[in-house]
TrEMBL record:
Keyword Hydrolase recorded: yes
Pfam families reported for this sequence: Glucosamine_iso
Identification of the protein by name: Glucosamine-6-phosphate deaminase
Biological process according to GO: carbohydrate metabolic process; glucosamine catabolic process; N-acetylglucosamine catabolic process; N-acetylneuraminate catabolic process
Ranges of residues in domain Glucosamine/galactosamine-6-phosphate isomerase: 11-230
InterPro entries, A to Z: Glc/Gal-6P_isomerase, Glucosamine6P_isomerase, Glucosamine6P_isomerase_CS, NagB/RpiA_transferase-like
Keywords, sorted A to Z: Hydrolase
UniProt organism field: Spirosoma foliorum
Any one annotated GO CC term: cytoplasm
GO molecular function: glucosamine-6-phosphate deaminase activity; identical protein binding
Amino acid sequence: MTFHQFPDHATLSQYTAEHIAAIINQKPDALLCLASGDTPIETYHRFVDLVKADKVDISQCTFVGLDEWVGFGPEDFGSCSYYVFRDLFTPLNLRPDQVHVFDAKADDLQAECAKIDAVIKAKGGLDLLLVGMGMNGHIALNEPGTPFTLGCHVVDLAESTITVGQKYFEKETSLTQGITVGLRHLTEAKEVILLVSGAKKAPVLRDALRGPITEEMPASILQTHANGQVWVDEAAGSLLADV
Ligand SMILES: N[C@@H]1[C@@H](O)[C@H](O)[C@@H](COP(=O)(O)O)O[C@@H]1O
């Protein structure tokens, strides 16, 4: 694992966008799984700028959705896929065959897990997994206590995730379960980037990077990845020097 601290969120976002473009320039048919959440939004805007400026050709790439609230879909404001479509997939004008997301409204959620597991397997694994970190250290929707060995699965959401998740919605919304790419896919990904931004995440980031590697702190799995990058802004990294 390598760690880099950027002065601010804008610099972090520009660097990350250029890095994603570099991965695709090296492997035009790359399979990418990119997080929802507030943290990477500016990265996606910068990446769209690079595509529109012809700095990278995405016509052969495939994108996999990372996670979703059960019962919600891309058309629902506040869903995970709503933001990824709004900020990335739609502005990129991707063909339908380039995008694979969980249908979290499906009757058979296990089949949805098998569907995404199969896409990842068929493409020989993820070339890039870009994730954020929840306030309880979750990665995607892998909550504390999730085995590192799981592939895609359905999860009961932690209280903290339900509370913090309200920020994505206009009004109070009932969230109970999630469907998510698992940490086995993180372990097997050729490269993983964890983006962390803001002072409120600083204590969790310190525990994830300086504490023990444990399933109780999902983000600690980054410590085990040979090609794992943890990229943070100064506010998020503010407690690391003190450890
Ligand atoms: N499902 C998402 C995750 O995929 C995201 O990475 C994380 C951090 O989100 P944010 O960047 O908004 O802090 O929490 C949410 O629950």
